[in-house]
Amino acid sequence: MGGFAWSTSAFDSKSGQVILLVLLVMTASFYTGTFFGRNSSSTPSSSSELIGSPIFSNKVTLTHHKSPLKIPETGMNICPMEFNEHIPCHDPSYIKELMPNLDLSKREDLERHCPPLERRLFCLIPPPQDYKMPVRWPTSRDYVWRSNVNHTRLSEVKGGQNWVHEKDQLWWFPGGGTHFKHGASEYIQRLGNMTTDETGDLRSAGVYQVLDVGCGVASFSAYLLPLNVQTMSFAPKDGHENQIQFALERGIAAMISALSTKQLPYPSRSFEMVHCSRCRVDWHENDGILLKEINRLLRPNGYFVYSAPPAYRKDKDYPIIWDKLVNITSGMCWKLIARKIQTAIWMKEADQACLQHNAEQNLVNICDSVDDHKPSWKTPLRNCVALGTTGSEKLPPIPHRLSVYSESLNDIGITQEKFLADTLYWQDQVRHYWRLMNVDDTSVRNIMDMNALYGGFAVAFSTWPVWVMNVVPATMNNTLSAIYERGLIGAFHDWCEPFSSYPRTYDLLHASYLFSHYGNHQDGCSLEDIMLEMDRLIRPQGFVIIRDDESIISRIREIAPKFLWEVKSYVLENQQQQSEPLLICQKKFWAIA
Ligand SMILES: *[C@@H]1O[C@H](CO)[C@@H](O)[C@H](O)[C@H]1NC(C)=O
Ligand SMILES: *[C@@H]1O[C@H](CO)[C@@H](O)[C@H](O)[C@H]1NC(C)=O
Ligand SMILES: *[C@@H]1O[C@H](CO)[C@@H](O)[C@H](O)[C@H]1NC(C)=O
Ligand SMILES: *[C@@H]1O[C@H](CO)[C@@H](O)[C@H](O)[C@H]1NC(C)=O
């Protein structure tokens, strides 16, 4: 099993090291085999074998970004093996250097810190030893390959809390968590009871979009899926546990992020519930500034669910912390609607009179009205609460929510007709994509739309067993609010910097007019830099679909083979029925032998 062979070798004279790059392919049985067949006690199996014997000339050598950028004749260099989990803006060795200047009491060390350009790598990230094609959804909810996330630490620390266990070559996720040893489903049912006076589930409480803070291996999100509830899960990269890597390997929406000194990269009023189950955030510190960020993210009448010792324990400092939480939340006019079995739930009441009153009593600050439509990207936290004006209209349940036309689109000149045309257009395009990629449905689970506009691409996938991370570049108009109002999830990002995700975490990247948006080629935004980051994010044999101006397309077509991408060119129509060039690239499954 997993017997790797290698096809060719090159001698790197500089390092005097023999480099072997191999091309791997999984046998068909891996895809088609129903993992458990009739015997649910057996475990997935894999095998790999060599196809062809292409000659790789790429060298394995640590290479940094140099201006002007130059791709070697031999193809992009490959970073050494120890970089196989490299996340440029969460690099422990770089953050260690910054430590003396970071506010550790606010955990600023957990936030993004991108190294200056000359410190950035300019080589392809290799997979770890014995990397296997990921287990496919829905089996991956419960099992992933151990060799793909080779960290025993989480199971050692959290095994007793039923998060994850070792099982032969696999990790097994029984669906537990620190706070729900008896399983996430039961816990979710209990939250439904608490928000509905025992009369219903979270859906009847109006909860369809959830933000999970400090999500662990994202079992909460996984078990909300049967209710059609969409969850954005995040956790910091905390050294040894790789929670987000586990979540994404399982096929669950997640990204690295931290509540510290800056706003989260999500728009205001986007979630009906924010969940913290022992999420290790000190909500009561700094005047409750982190709870004010949660207040920003919650929709009117949204819930904050807090399952942590201050909610139920009477020893140590817990009662004092609880009192502080009560002070902060009542200052913001949140209402404690339930407190039992180790969980407290507050509701953000859309009560303007209460906020005005508390502001007069100096119990809370009201934010100066700032442009709420601006993308929250590198925006410092604000120790204040906005007086809600818009966004209080109640959204329909999912899936009806998918067709909601947000007033915020009107504000940036997108008419309802244009919105509708966009939705229909992407339905059509996604069908074409699938035909052209010629893959079966199960081979794609984690999708990112790198320039999501109004989310039409993601809507076209709404009935598929996939999830889509909708990314809106921070330099564009904020259409992410409108995407959230459609019941979808996503984040702001600036593609001049690497994304906060582990390597090999997406099966499909979609880049529609992304490169031309960054066309001015300022440092860190060159086409090669963005391609390198795409290569890091995409799984072996994953796809990259690129639409753009002819000149950009031909440049990418030229250099894609140097990234070890197979590239195919097509022509489809744009929304004006003019033909438009398109590239479908597939990352080869290669490894350092
Ligand atoms: C996993 O990591 C351990 C050391 O941390 C190493 O000995 C082992 O070979 C690794 N396994 C795989 C499959 O890479
Ligand atoms: C939720 O409430 C229903 C109806 O009262 C009850 O049958 C069920 O056991 C409750 N679930 C949990 C987890 O408390
Ligand atoms: C809560 O607020 C009250 C009145 O504003 C104040 O007396 C009390 O000390 C506060 N408690 C904490 C724990 O901050
Ligand atoms: C952003 O919105 C403004 C109107 O608020 C519009 O004039 C402009 O063209 C939009 N920019 C983009 C890139 O769509």
TrEMBL record:
MF terms from GO for this chain are: methyltransferase activity
Residue ranges that the Swiss-Prot or TrEMBL entry lists as coiled coil:
none
The record's EC number reads: 2.1.1.-
What membrane topology was assigned to this protein in its record? Single-pass type II membrane protein
Q: Does the keyword Transmembrane apply?
A: yes
Q: Where are the transmembrane segments?
A: 18-37
* Name listed for the protein in its UniProt record: Methyltransferase
Q: What is the lineage of its organism?
A: Eukaryota, Viridiplantae, Streptophyta, Embryophyta, Tracheophyta
